[in-house]
């Protein structure tokens, strides 16, 4: 397992990706910046000068009406669930225990070499590239037994279960996916609504602690608008919330689940594996877990969070890496066997290039279609693209490649695994 050091640094892929996001004018990406700006960006990435950033403390004094059991009704799990192989027995740090994760998290040296060699391409953006619509949460469901999911950009979703349970996944509604003092890291597409516009929030589910998935600005606004909301997070992340005065938090390990009840609505929430990483500074790599999640409440939803599928070595640009037999992450088939099938899956398709650097932690569209099949999902909505410039593929390339990947698997290019406009609500029927 790799641990951070100043000589051989293995930092989070999400923070490393932000090396590509420098201050913009009119949403234009530029590979040039002043040396002071670059140094400030590097300080933000590596977690220096944290004393300049003091999170706002939010304490409502209210108890959430949501009731959480000590443990959910037992469900089947793979044998690996008992071994806890993702926790280093010596250090207690979390890591990806599969060959598909390669030699650990994305390395600073890999990204730096790719940038200096100009392999890492600049990305053009414009305000009209990602159309955003304002969701109408007051619109009635066409069928009360449907799941309605609204994509809020990147990995953020507002999901209304047929039971009436209202769930927010990885809500990031602010302008930045970085500390407020860090330069750059600004949206290329606006948030489709305000936090206060949601018609209620019962549960907030966080996949991991990276800034583009756990946002201080948004959490503060959730506590202001919905003080009774309850939070579910992976191991180690609860501490971040308690420091803000938020106590309505349950943290879970992979394959753990909890039964909950709120206002007469029952549900089961499950924490499941993913192939990724997590940290918010240079000093906490591996100290908090990353996860995917399931929600069952008169319907079943899978949220992948952020994940890779198979580590791909450096290959010629015209080489199809799927023409080479390489190990893929086994947990998605385990999830399908032990927790599936799912009525709806929310799956990432972007931030995958350069492939040899990002593949271990980010799925490309072909990977995502394979995950879709592995977990036994009936429908899927794409995410993790079009909101920030995190890697070097063109903004809309993931959507095009998703259609190509679906064709390769003889799946329809619409109505099964769809990419939609930010702010779009999709209704999905539940299978019983």
N/C terminus separation: 43 Å
CATH H level, superfamily name: Ribonuclease Z/Hydroxyacylglutathione hydrolase-like
Q: Give the structural class.
A: alpha/beta
Mean pLDDT: 84
User: How many independent structural domains?
Assistant: 1
Major sheet strand order: 1-8-9-10-11-12-13-14
Give a topology summary.
Elements: H1 13-17, H2 35-46, E1 67-68, H3 80-83, H4 108-116, E2 147-151, E3 157-160, E4 166-169, E5 203-205, H5 216-225, E6 230-234, H6 238-242, E7 249-252, E8 257-262, E9 265-272, E10 292-296, E11 300-303, H7 331-338, E12 344-348, H8 355-358, H9 365-374, E13 380-383, H10 397-408, E14 417-418, E15 425-428
Parallel strand pairs: 4-5, 5-6, 6-7, 11-12, 12-13, 13-14
Antiparallel strand pairs: 1-8, 2-3, 2-15, 3-4, 8-9, 9-10, 10-11
Helix pairs in contact: 9-10
Task: Note down, in words, how this protein is organized.
This protein has helices at 13-17, 35-46, 80-83, 108-116, 216-225, 238-242, 331-338, 355-358, 365-374, 397-408, and strands at 67-68, 147-151, 157-160, 166-169, 203-205, 230-234, 249-252, 257-262, 265-272, 292-296, 300-303, 344-348, 380-383, 417-418, 425-428. With 432 residues, it is an alpha/beta fold. It has one domain: Metallo-beta-lactamase, Chain A. The strands form 2 sheets. An 8-stranded mixed β-sheet has the order 1-8-9-10-11-12-13-14, with helices on one face. It has a 7-stranded mixed β-sheet with strand order 7-6-5-4-3-2-15. Helix 7 links the parallel strand 11 and strand 12. Helix 9 crosses helix 10. The chain is globular. The model is unreliable at 1-61 (pLDDT under 50).
């Amino acid at each position: 397992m790799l641990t951070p050091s100043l000589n051989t640094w293995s930092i989070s892929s999400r923070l490393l990706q932000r090396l590509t996001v420098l201050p913009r004018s009119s949403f234009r990406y530029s590979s040039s910046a002043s040396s002071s700006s670059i140094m400030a960006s590097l300080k933000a990435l590596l977690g220096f000068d944290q004393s300049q950033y003091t999170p706002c403390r939010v304490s409502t004094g209210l108890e959430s009406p949501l009731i959480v059991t000590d443990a959910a009704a037992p469900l089947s799990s793979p044998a690996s669930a008992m071994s806890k192989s993702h926790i280093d027995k010596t250090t207690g740090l979390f890591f990806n225990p599969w060959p598909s994760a390669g030699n650990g998290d994305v390395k600073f040296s890999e990204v730096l070499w790719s940038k200096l060699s100009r392999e890492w391409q600049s990305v053009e953006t414009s305000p009209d590239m990602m159309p955003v619509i304002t969701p109408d949460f007051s619109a009635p469901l066409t069928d009360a037994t449907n799941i309605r999911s609204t994509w809020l950009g990147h990995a953020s979703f507002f999901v209304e279960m047929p039971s009436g349970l209202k769930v927010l996944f990885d809500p990031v509604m602010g302008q930045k996916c970085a500390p407020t003092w860090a330069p750059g890291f600004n949206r290329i597409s606006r948030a489709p609504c305000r936090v206060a516009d949601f018609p209620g929030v019962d549960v907030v589910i966080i996949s991991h602690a990276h800034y583009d998935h756990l946002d201080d600005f948004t959490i503060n606004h959730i506590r202001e608008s919905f003080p009774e909301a309850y939070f579910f997070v992976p191991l180690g992340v609860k501490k971040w919330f308690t420091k803000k005065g938020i106590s309505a938090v349950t943290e879970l390990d992979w394959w753990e689940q909890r039964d909950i009840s709120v206002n007469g609505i029952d549900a089961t929430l499950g924490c499941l594996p993913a192939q990724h990483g997590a940290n918010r500074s240079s000093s906490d790599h591996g100290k908090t877990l990353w996860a995917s999640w399931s929600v069952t409440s008169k319907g079943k939803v899978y949220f992948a969070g952020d994940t890779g599928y198979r580590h791909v070595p450096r290959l010629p640009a015209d080489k199809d890496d799927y023409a080479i037999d390489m190990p893929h992450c086994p947990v998605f088939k385990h999830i399908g066997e032990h927790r599936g099938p799912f009525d709806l899956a929310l799956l990432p398709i972007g931030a995958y290039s350069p492939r040899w650097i990002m593949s271990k932690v980010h799925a490309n569209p072909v990977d995502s279609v394979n995950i879709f099949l592995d977990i036994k999902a009936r429908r899927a909505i794409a995410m993790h693209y079009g909101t920030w410039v995190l890697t070097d593929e063109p903004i809309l390339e993931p959507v095009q490649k998703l259609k190509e990947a679906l064709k390769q698997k003889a799946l329809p290019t619409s109505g099964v695994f769809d990419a939609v406009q930010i702010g779009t609500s999709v209704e999905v029927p539940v299978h019983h």
